[in-house]
Amino acid sequence: MVKANFSLHISGIDCNSVNLFGDRAALRKTLYNFADLYDKRPFDNTGGIKFASAFAYYFFLQQIAPKVVIESGIWRGFSTWLIDSMLPSSQLFCLDPVLMMPFKFESAYRPKRAIYSTQDFSCFGFSSETASQACVIFDDHQNVLPRLEQALHYGIEHVMLDDNQYAETYHESISHLLKNNHPILPYLFESIEEYYLFPPLIPPIPEECPVEPLWNEIPPRLQHLDIESEFAYTWVTYIRLKINSKFQFDAD
Fold first, then answer.
1. For residues 172 and 147, what is the distance between their CA atoms, to the nearest angstrom?
2. Is residue 251 part of a domain?
């Protein structure tokens, strides 16, 4: 049985509905604590995650409290700043081919304690001890099925996806698979314990988004933020894998 915060409607897969956001007082406290941290951000993240997506990261990482965080895709390092700030004792792996390119960012965050590599997640070679304590964040715009297979191969239980969007794009997301009722879904979800899509913070609801916004209007603490950019929705999703499962993606 898969725990999820909306109905998956996958043939042969039982779904147990979970309300992650029922304690409104606790949720508001978490939001305001994050807002205090976000006000200290080192730069405005043009072209990357903004407040809404960063809050989704913050919410899920608080629940997991991993000892190791692996980022596949870091760009300017805004999410690295978030992880470094909220999990100061965690080990950080930051993987991105952008590190080998001659980009000169006006602003970037590269903490000395992080381990950086231009290697792809699929071939980095994490130890079993590291993998068993890790959460991997995929913000690399790669097809999701091989990424989940790779995480299972390493023995990584906790996965977060950015850009798990419904709208068509150049990489395949789980939302695309659900949209098209892909025949691999029952097999895939046999390898998944939990599947939680973080909701939009405020209306409007994006096309075919199956979860309601957390607030009907902008909370007072966030009134200073730009509504057009800071509340953009990127379908951040948390997945807990069954690490003893044998899911394999057949590219054919």
1. 11
2. no
